[in-house]
Task: inverse folding
């Protein structure tokens, strides 16, 4: 695979993960490590549960 094709595939996968919200937990972990290192980390399951609860409270942030 050429470097150009590899960058295109990597960029496309990143974009799809961003649109689908798959990167949200990784962003949460980075934020937590940087800004709240002394607090316990939510499990992925608890993080997703809270994220879905927030989407129900604030439905204007989604398309449907």
Result:
């Amino acid at each position: 695979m050429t470097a150009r094709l590899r960058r295109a595939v990597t960029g496309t996968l990143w974009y799809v993960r961003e649109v689908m919200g798959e990167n949200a937990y990784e962003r949460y972990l980075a934020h937590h490590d940087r800004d709240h290192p002394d607090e316990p980390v939510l499990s992925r399951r608890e993080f997703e549960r809270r994220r879905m609860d927030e989407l129900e409270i604030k439905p204007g942030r989604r398309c449907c």
